[in-house]
């Protein structure tokens, strides 16, 4: 999702000689294969958007896998880039790097000031290690490093898998299917009180290309909309957009995750970035996206 959006944004800016690989073409968990890729291609700029990602349930079910696999991906790519003449290295982190009880909005300097949210600690630890590697490379070897910490992303390429999707994709699938099945109720995890910040992936990609031109510092920088919404409010928005007329029930035995995550994006705004795609429009696009995927699956396309 993130990588393909960045490729679209780079092409919009006239970038040429963009080298990409699918997961089938290059397994970034394979150190030797990754090293061979860098030796053969020797790119000048590397943007690391690849990661193992998922929602609360997936993170809780396999924290070892989320930590191990993301460390492997990051180590292989960052070291391969550093050993083969890369001039600029862009690393996509996550807003989950900040402490669970972080003051809001979360400023870049709040990193490592408190314990992490337990439900996604493995993923967060990997991202913290990655951003530190990029910072150390900048200081020790003069490689220009850019570490961007996005908020919750959604959009084209997002997964609607029942076990591995992020919250917006998961809710879109649940509400569309509940409407089709004429289910009288739908039960969602937690209390709905947690608050999250969302940004369409195409806005994220525009911001990354802007930062590549204007942000010349190894310090991390937040990337988001600067606005948040409760999960309950998000569910109501999606329910309305889908036109589902059943009742939403909440299961408080399931975790809410971090109580609130809203980034301080003053540094990004100071560079001239403003999101273009409001949440309501983004939700409508996600519903269309899921409906099309569903039709393709049923038709065997």
Key features of this structure:
single chain; 301 residues; globular; 45% helix; Rossmann fold
How would you describe this protein?
- With 301 residues, this protein is an alpha/beta fold.
- The protein has a single domain, classed as Rossmann fold.
- 45% of the residues lie in helices and 14% in strands.
User: How many helix segments?
Assistant: 10
Please count the beta strands (DSSP E, at least 2 residues each).
10
Morphology call: globular
In round numbers, the mean pLDDT is: 95
Run of helices and strands? HHEHHEHEEHEEHEEHEEHH
Rounded to an integer in angstroms, the radius of gyration calculated over CA atoms is 19 Å
Please give the domain count: 1
* CATH topology label: Rossmann fold
Largest sheet: 4 strands, parallel
Distance from first to last alpha carbon: 21 Å
Task: Please give the oligomerization state of what you see.
Answer: single chain
CATH class bucket: Alpha Beta
Short structural description:
Helices cover 45% and strands 14% of the residues. The chain is α/β, with parallel strands linked by helices and 301 residues long.
């Amino acid at each position: 999702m993130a990588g393909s959006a960045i490729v679209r944004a780079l092409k919009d800016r006239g970038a040429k000689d963009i080298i990409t690989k699918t997961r089938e073409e290059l397994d970034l968990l394979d150190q030797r294969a990754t090293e061979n890729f860098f030796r053969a291609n020797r790119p000048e700029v590397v943007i690391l958007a690849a990661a193992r990602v998922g929602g609360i349930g997936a993170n809780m079910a396999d924290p070892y896998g989320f930590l191990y696999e993301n460390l492997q991906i990051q180590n292989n790519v960052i070291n391969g880039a550093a050993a083969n003449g890369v001039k600029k290295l862009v690393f996509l982190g996550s807003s989950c790097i900040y402490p669970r009880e972080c003051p809001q909005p979360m400023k870049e300097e709040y990193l490592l000031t408190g314990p992490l949210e337990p439900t996604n600690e493995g993923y967060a630890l990997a991202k913290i290690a990655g951003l530190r590697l990029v910072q150390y490379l900048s200081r020790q070897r003069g490689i220009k490093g850019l570490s961007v910490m996005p908020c919750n992303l959604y959009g084209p390429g997002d997964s609607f898998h029942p076990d591995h999707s992020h919250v917006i994709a998961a809710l879109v699938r649940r509400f569309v299917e509940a409407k089709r099945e004429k289910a009288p109720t739908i039960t969602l995890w937690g209390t709905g009180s947690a608050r999250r910040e969302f940004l369409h992936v195409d806005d994220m990609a525009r911001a990354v290309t802007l930062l590549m031109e204007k942000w010349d510092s190894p310090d991390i920088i937040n990337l988001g909309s600067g606005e948040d919404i409760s999960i309950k409010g998000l569910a109501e928005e999606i329910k309305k957009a889908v036109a589902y007329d059943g009742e939403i029930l909440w299961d408080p035995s399931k975790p809410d995750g971090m109580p609130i995550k809203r980034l301080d994006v003053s540094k990004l705004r100071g560079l001239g970035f403003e999101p273009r795609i409001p949440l309501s429009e983004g939700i409508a696009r996600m519903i269309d996206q899921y409906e099309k995927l569903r039709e393709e699956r049923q038709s065997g396309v």
